[in-house]
Amino acid sequence: MEFAELIKTPRVDGVVLHRPFMPTVEGTLCLTGHHLILSSRQDNTEELWLLHANIDSIEKRFIGSLGTIIVKCKDLRVIQLDIPGMEECLNIANSIEALSTLDSVSLMYPFFYRPLFEVIEDGWQLFVPEEAFKDLESMTDEWRLSEVNKDFSVCPSYPSLLTVPKDIDDESLCKAASFRHGGRFPVLSYYHKKNGMVMMRAAQPLTGTNGRRCKEDEKLINATLCAGKRGYIIDTRTIAVAQQAKARGGGFEQEANYPQWRRIHKAIERSNVLQESLIKLVEACNDQSHSMDRWLSKLEASNWQSNVKEILTTACLAAQCIDREGASVLVHGTEGTDSTLQVTSLAQIILDPACRTIRGFEALIEREWLQAGHPFQQRCAQSAYSNGKPRSEAPVFLLFLDCVWQILRQFPCSFQFNENFLIMLFEHTYASQFGTFLGNCVAERVKLQLSQKTVSLWSWVNRPQELERFLNPLYEPNNLVIWPSVAPQSLLLWEGVFLRWNRSTKCLDEAHQEMVHIIEYNKELQNKVNSLRRQLAQLETEDSPLQTP
Amino acid sequence: MEHIRTPKVENVRMIDRLIPRKSTLGTLYLSSTHTIFVENSEARKETWVLHSLVYNVERLPTNSSGSPLIIRCKNFHVYRLLIPQEKDCLDVLASLTRLSRPERYGELFSFSFNPNLDKELREKAWGFIDLKAEFSRMGIPSNLWHVTAANYEYRLCDTYPSELFVPKSASPAVIVGSAKFRSRGRLPVLSYFHRDTGASICRSSQPLSGFSARSSDDEQMLQAIMKSNPVSEFMYVVDTRPKLNAMANRAAGKGYENEDHYTNIKLQFIGIENIHVMRNSQQKLIDVGELAAPSMSDFLWGLENSGWLKHIKAVLDAGVFIAKVVAEDGVSVLVHCSDGWDRTAQACSVASVLLDPYYRTIKGLMILIEKDWVSFGHKFSHRYAHLDGDPKEVSPVMDQFLECVWQLMQQFPCAFEFNERFLVQLHTHIYSCQYGNFIGICQKERRDLRLQERTHSLWPHLWENRAEYTNPLYRIDHSQTQGVLKPLTTAYCFKFWKGMYGRAEKSVASHQSPADCLNAVREESQQLEEELSAHQERLAQLKERKTSGERKTSKLSERVRRPIPTESELSSPLDYFTTPRSEKRTPSFTLPLQLAAPPKNGDPDDLSTCSDFESGVADLSSYSSSGGDDAKDPDADEVVKANA
């Protein structure tokens, strides 16, 4: 297919662009296969350079022959284009609609994008399971790397290499896989170096209504327990939801079959509910005419903050079981690709200081989201402005980022990255020139040959010149477990994302700049003092032999 | 001392609601001024609670472990005690109830508080804030405004200061006549003069207009005010009340200006609710803060239902309106409400903070409070329940002003010299009566009480400790520090003030703030600067001596590096096990007791102890890392069992 077929009017002059908190711009609008570009041709800059993939929905309006297109983006921005000429406007609108809803992944921009920078460190090679396993091996010899899923036949959504207990053979793994939803048998998610406890994740067991059991599954998870120790199974669903799942062949671990495990049910919402919540929240944030009562009641009704609280609480619980109770933990919900990953990844941020560095956080996203098979492509196909009926869209990853932001806000010195890093990740999950978040699982990414045909987000982000704006000036590495408060008053609305386009951030940006200045000045002074000290010491030693009586 | 039935109770338990394990056993002492809890532990940690800060004391039914007593403070700290014997509990309750409700000014703590200052210093301290100097700082043109002697000895208006700025063109007869036509004689006088535009903010009480009354003196007074701003052809009269309330006042012979009678005025109603609505609203907000394990919905619903943020928005909107009229349109404003000492003070002072960068400095805010609140008359004793009196007179008027400033700080992080701690500290002092500044309701009463001889002034004390109250992001030459602030007042810009209302749950409020880290860094930078110059000097010396062959004498001094506070583990992760909906709410013993930072010594008259122990500001050092201390949490087992 040629993109040109979809572009009837590639160029319109005299288009006026309205953006919140910025002056309006008049210029020429150009459509390319992947971008919507507006340029006033003054000082040779483009005022707008928007990926079609970033467009969530559009609205058309006409007053006489002046058409207006309201473009609602997946990063929650809303812009307005005034286009002279009804036909031009309609053509543009139709093209945008078609180009922003391309079905085929291989037509996406990452496959056409050629980086203007030299790739020094290939992000695709940065986080390979073998490397992570080497780290694990240095701490414990209880685990092995299994190739049972090398052709993705045992579990299509798992990567080819999986970390499993050493004493469990591949045959048992296959049997356990057949007992778990989507073949997602329990695998290692995190090893807590301090006390040797582990966190595993899986999908729900397929107990069904007649209470099926699977000896291999029981053996597999029991293999992670020390003698005489008990473990916790954290089911991210309420007991009622878990019960209902039985009717559809799913279920939960029966006490009788898993006597060494204690099950705790939490109440993280399913993805379709989360999408609803996002839509309501963004709607509330975008209406500036709300009275205080209406705003608070809409915020409450969106349930977004409740979702943040529930997810964070569950992650803290998992971390508490591991660190304080000295127990191993198995986390699952239904499919084990959404709420499960929210919990396991957040728990690691709480427990493991390495995850609070930039590299460590990237590795965490690679491990616990990309490799673990979170269906990014499905979940991020549409954002808060989609008009269509939601299929499997859901802000699961955005909620995870929101929770990270909450912890970051409570522990402003414990993270190497800042809020901008999280916002950047949010943007790239929905629309990107990089291939990192394409596909739904490793198998799909291999098939799409992403690592050969697209550039990895990490190749770009990790360049020192990009990294700079993602660094937290307050960062002081510490080796502590950080326990966030989950009280409602401690959890705030993430304004950096949800009010980003609804207010000017000038003053807050300036505050950030001030902060950077203070820290940089301090470093500069330290360097000066240290060099002077060395000079002095040298002078004094040079001095002293002569001076000795 | 006659009110203390039992001065000492042993084996009292101070309860921590969120973390029961942290409850401590100790001895409770009652002094004439404080309740003191001394832990039995080796550290002998002490918690001091000033009687005048106690808002109420509640006894819950005795149970098998003892008699619970809840002490709620006016600065929103809550202390929960468990007293073994019911009789002791009743005695403590009776004593505290009486002690926390002084009946005469003489009983207030400020009259016994003695920070060991000699007479001269005390007098000097009272002169720290000079309002005459402030009015001259404003640059009031002397050809248009002057100080009238009309209120000498408070003859015209007993709640106003004796020196008043009025338009020079207003004759003494007009001044007297205008005062007669205003509620309580609070005639229109100058509060703030905006040098850039020549527009002014004047304040008064409501006119005694009723349905038809008019006063040509008052009309001439407003005309004179308008004319004092030569470039403007009209002026605004801002009635901060809802229009309905203002209309209702007409039936009582009061009301608002009739636009037909006054030439060239525009009347604007703002709609700030009255003190009773505000009191109830704040109580609901406090209740939200006290909820045990609330869900997000409980919290947000409670916040909405309290209406608090709506009222804060109304006050800020009033300030924004006035500031805009004065700075952008260059039009003068007369602000009033009913008596002109609650909403009027709020609106004028918020507008001043927006208009004038000086009021965003530490000293400037002190001056503003002294001018708009203390000097122009505000019923401190009633609003903040200093004396046992009509509970309907109590209202969080200044709380709202301080919160407006806080909300502005959220939008303009570099614009204020002071930090949140300063506002919280001011709030505590407004209620605590430790210093004499906020005793009485007006200048005349304070003079009659001879406060300057009998009590001490707060301002120099805060000024000496200003390092604690400094915002590290503030820079005098920063763009945010200049000019007029234009805040956004969309509903979503207003936040729950956790640093003020979230203090019932200590475990919730214990996280480190970036500002504290930055202050530590800045302090270190200062030391580095000193060291740098010392080294440079030494280097020069050495080089010189090397040539002259002189023997070196001094050693390099070691720089003491102040550690940048690190975040530690929150002491307990317990609340993650509870699911708010399923948990049955226990009404009493589930809130953590606010364990305030211990005073440095036990002397209640010691300045440092008395100012700090109620500040509610976390001492950072106490949270600094203990190097990954991960002692197994004994309580956690129980909770797991209970929930699993």
TrEMBL record, chain A:
Under what name is this protein listed?
Answer: Myotubularin-related protein 9
The lineage's top-level taxon is Eukaryota
This protein's UniProt keywords: Acetylation, Cell membrane, Cell projection, Coiled coil, Cytoplasm, Endoplasmic reticulum, Membrane
Keyword Nucleotide-binding among UniProt keywords: no
Keyword Cell membrane listed: yes
Q: Which GO terms describe its biological process?
A: negative regulation of autophagy; phosphatidylinositol dephosphorylation
Species source reads Onychostoma macrolepis
The family annotation for this protein states: Belongs to the protein-tyrosine phosphatase family. Non-receptor class myotubularin subfamily.
PANTHER family membership: MYOTUBULARIN-RELATED (PTHR10807), MYOTUBULARIN-RELATED PROTEIN 9 (PTHR10807:SF56)
Topology in the lipid bilayer is annotated as:
Peripheral membrane protein
Gene Ontology CC terms, in alphabetical order: cytosol; endoplasmic reticulum; perinuclear region of cytoplasm; ruffle membrane
Where does it live in the cell?
Cell projection, Ruffle membrane; Cytoplasm, Perinuclear region; Endoplasmic reticulum
Automatic annotation (TrEMBL), chain B:
Where is the catalytic site?
337 (phosphocysteine intermediate)
Q: Is the Transferase keyword given for this protein?
A: no
Q: Name one GO cellular component term.
A: cytoplasm
Which InterPro entries does the UniProt record give? Myotubularin (IPR030564), Myotubularin-like_Pase_dom (IPR010569), PH-GRAM_MTMR6-9 (IPR048994), PH-like_dom_sf (IPR011993), Prot-tyrosine_phosphatase-like (IPR029021), Tyr_Pase_AS (IPR016130), Tyr_Pase_cat (IPR003595)
Q: Which PROSITE patterns match?
A: PPASE_MYOTUBULARIN, TYR_PHOSPHATASE_1
UniProt keyword annotation of DNA-binding present: no
- Which residues are recorded as binding substrate? 274-275, 337-343
User: Region Disordered: what ranges?
Assistant: 541-644
Indicate the segments forming the Myotubularin phosphatase domain, all copies. 125-501
The GO terms describing molecular function are: phosphatidylinositol-3,5-bisphosphate phosphatase activity; phosphatidylinositol-3-phosphate phosphatase activity
Protein family according to the UniProt entry? Belongs to the protein-tyrosine phosphatase family. Non-receptor class myotubularin subfamily.
- Protein name, as recorded: Myotubularin phosphatase domain-containing protein
| Organism, scientific name | Onychostoma macrolepis
